[in-house]
Specification:
733 residues; mainly beta; 8-stranded antiparallel sheet; 50% strand
């Protein structure tokens, strides 16, 4: 039993202050009512032990309290699970024992309030088998590791196999690990964070900085077989991406390849596989270890039978590649691939295996739950990541499955390797395949509000509006500029919320199984127009535009269209509303009546099928602004289209690249633009119609999204995302 004198207990990415009555995740407060928190307190006081329903009743509802106990307890436990992102069917924290009670099944660490950060680890005993025969993961032991090594948890997957999960780095929230690779002999870990490149001795935790003569930040992608050199990637906004050979013993790095990223060294060290091209059009290439004898293996252009077959599998859309990895014998390459599809949908994600000798490609797994990372074990299995089902869709975990090399497919049953919160990515194996390292990343966008200061040349420090967990994205303000309308997936699918700027918690406007995508106001500000993803049974995949009163009410269908991606309305006296359809090679713009849904096509312009676009309609309805999303390292460009008459023109943002978002200011004279400076730091700009850009907000420690101005122009709502990332390892699978 945990020491009841302890005040603060941590588990996973959560920390509970039992005396203060607060729950936090990654340092951010999670809103939790009193009764669910009392249940959590009782469970944490006895981790791994059954807390009976009768014990909970006595603590929460004294004998003289008259209440529907069963209903009240079930509701309180559900609110607790919602706050933890947990589920009764697949519990990570709170397990239900039918008609008996509940048990906390995750490892916990307890310390007195204000004590040393070194925790006392408390391990719950293994859960018993349920009557249905479901075998839960059993915790065998948890050991405290010194010198930043973290903790080790051994879990029994079956009586013969033990998987040991260990944390190797201990970077803080404001300095996440960006990438890491373990040496072939498992003795060293090279990792990069915001401050530089480092070598860590795995056995002791001793860490040394790797001195680099270049100012470019290096990101390790693989080891050479000699165990003394790593392959590292850099990106320069003038020269583009490059791959370097870096000695961990010191000395000047040697540039191996230009126009190359995300390299992987073959097991014998003779070849490098790498990705060439920018975000809209990528290819996989091979070269010798010295950067010579370069040739394309997979890509958008070329000829031959193999290329034609690959094009038939891919279709006409472009592709973005994730991690590359060699098979243990060096005869194959495995990779993940993302294909953008126009319309409301996310892209298609696949896991492919390529034979470089013949350029044959077999796609062995295709699912939108697939992550970007992949690794190949020494005994011929592939490790990959899958996102968890809702409501834990913000997390992913690792799976392993056998490969049939001759047939070019996965065989047998996929087996889960990890089970827990955060995103798992950046896989790296030792030469013997006995140790796998990966990054555990956490972080999600939250809502912030900032005042536009006098003179409108700077912003006040952003104040966080939403304290709930989940992804929170702002889209519009109410007409009085007092409330923000946004979407959030805190309950699973993205739902629609409204929250006053001085309100402690938001009001739920729209829930349901279909995700809300975008929300806007109609021209007079009386109604919210929002997009719903298509019904699962709709073969046409039509996106629906719904309308509802701004203060809540019964939603009504306004119109529906396939491939719809965005809507926006001007403000009175203009009544113009637009929606766009992003099709294979063109964006089509339609106007529509916000009351009847009647529509007509206005214009369209051609584009490459691989590009995503942002567009925004000015508040007075006179101009439409369009920009390609995160396009390369060339200066950002915004196209301005007059809605009545006049010629289109282009605004060039000299010194700023990779535009992430554009939105008109309330006065229709400026644009709020999220872009990157030459060093890669995202910045919120105020841009006038001549292209003059004023940096308004910059934060090197957070990703910054779009800015939504209030109708009175006095405030903006933005989303910013920060998170943590550390290296973990697995052994024994």
């Amino acid at each position: 039993m945990a020491d009841k004198g302890k005040d603060i207990v941590s588990f996973g990415s959560f920390e509970a202050d039992l005396r203060g009555g607060e729950l936090r995740r990654n340092g951010s407060k999670v809103r939790l009512q009193e009764q669910p928190f009392q249940i959590l307190t009782m469970l944490l006081e006895s981790p791994g032990e059954i807390v009976t329903r009768e014990e909970l009743r006595k603590r929460l509802w004294p004998a003289d309290t008259f209440v529907d106990f069963d209903h009240g307890l079930n509701a309180a436990v559900k609110r607790l699970r919602d706050a933890l992102g947990d589920s009764a069917e697949n519990p990570r924290f709170v397990e239900t024992l039918a008609r008996r009670g509940y048990r906390f099944v995750a490892p916990v660490a307890a310390k007195p309030n204000g004590a040393s950060p070194v925790p006392q680890i408390v391990t719950p005993p293994a859960p018993q088998k349920s009557r249905r025969g479901r075998i839960a993961l059993a915790t065998l032991s948890v050991l405290l590791m010194g010198t930043g090594a973290g903790w080790v948890a051994a879990r029994r997957l079956n009586p013969k196999v033990q998987i040991v999960e260990q944390r190797l780095t201990a970077n803080t929230l404001d300095d996440p690990v960006i990438s890491a690779v373990i040496s072939p002999d498992s003795k060293y870990l090279v990792f990069a964070d915001r401050s530089g490149l480092f070598l860590r001795v795995v056995g002791t935790g001793e860490t040394h900085s790797i001195a680099l003569p270049t100012t470019a930040k290096m990101r390790p992608t693989g080891w050479f077989p000699d165990g003394n050199h790593v392959l590292a990637a850099t990106f320069d906004y003038e020269e583009g991406p490059s791959l370097w050979s870096v000695s961990v013993l010191g000395g000047s790095p040697r540039r191996v390849l230009v126009n190359a990223r995300d390299g992987s060294v073959s097991p014998d060290g003779s070849q490098i596989a790498y990705i060439r091209g920018n975000g809209k059009d990528q290819e996989i290439w091979l070269s010798s270890a010295l950067g010579e004898q370069q040739r394309k293996v997979i890509g958008q252009t070329g000829g031959g039978v193999e290329e034609q077959l690959y094009r038939e599998v891919l279709g006409n859309s472009g592709e973005i590649f994730g991690q590359l990895v060699w098979s243990p014998d060096g005869s194959r390459l495995a990779f993940t691939r993302y294909v953008y599809r126009p319309g409301y949908r996310d892209g298609d994600v696949s896991l492919g295996i390529c034979d470089p000798a013949t350029n044959r490609v077999d796609f062995v797994l295709s699912t939108r739950r697939l992550g970007e990372t992949v690794a190949w074990t020494a005994d011929g299995r592939l490790v990959y990541s899958l996102t968890e089902p809702a409501p834990n869709q913000r997390d992913s975990n690792l799976w392993v499955q056998q490969v049939d090399m001759r047939a070019g497919k996965l065989i047998g049953e996929a087996k889960r390797l990890t089970s827990g919160p955060d995103v798992k990515t950046g896989l790296s194996f030792t030469a013997d395949g006995k140790r796998l390292t990966f990054l555990r990343r956490s972080g999600e966008p939250h809502l912030y509000i900032s005042q536009v200061a006098a003179g409108q040349d700077h912003l006040t420090a952003p104040r966080r509006l939403s304290l709930e967990e989940g992804r929170n994205l702002p889209y519009t303000w109410t007409a009085d500029s007092k409330s923000l309308v946004f979407i959030s997936d805190r309950e699973g699918p993205f739902h629609l919320f409204k929250q006053g700027i001085d309100q402690a918690a938001p009001d739920l406007l729209v829930d349901g199984s279909n995700m809300v995508m975008i929300a806007r106001l109609n021209p007079d500000g009386s109604e919210i127009l929002y997009l719903l993803t298509p019904d699962a049974n709709d073969p046409a995949g039509q996106v629906r535009v719904m309308r509802m009163p701004v203060n809540g009410g019964t939603p009504q269908l306004l119109l529906q269209e396939p491939f719809m991606e965005n809507i926006q309305c001007a403000r009175l006296p203009s009544k113009l509303c637009l929606f766009s359809r992003n099709e294979a090679h063109a964006i089509r713009f339609f106007s529509f009546d916000s009351k009847t849904g009647e529509k007509r096509e206005l214009t369209q312009f051609a584009h490459s099928s691989e590009l995503k676009f942002n567009w925004t309609l000015s508040a007075d309805g006179s101009m439409l602004a369009v920009a390609a999303w995160r396009l390369g390292q060339v200066p950002g460009e915004i196209q301005i289209f007059p809605m009545n008459s006049g010629k289109p023109r282009t605004i060039t943002l000299d010194g700023w690249v990779r535009i992430a978002a554009i939105d008109w200011a309330a006065d229709s004279r400026n644009l709020w633009v999220s872009a990157s400076d030459p060093s890669g730091v995202q910045t919120l700009l105020k841009v006038d119609l001549h292209g003059k850009a004023i940096p308004m907000l910059q934060d090197a420690q957070q990703e910054m999204g779009w800015a939504i101005p209030s109708p009175d122009g006095q405030r903006i709502a933005i989303w910013q995302a920060s998170g943590s990332a550390n290296v973990w390892s697995l052994q024994g699978f």
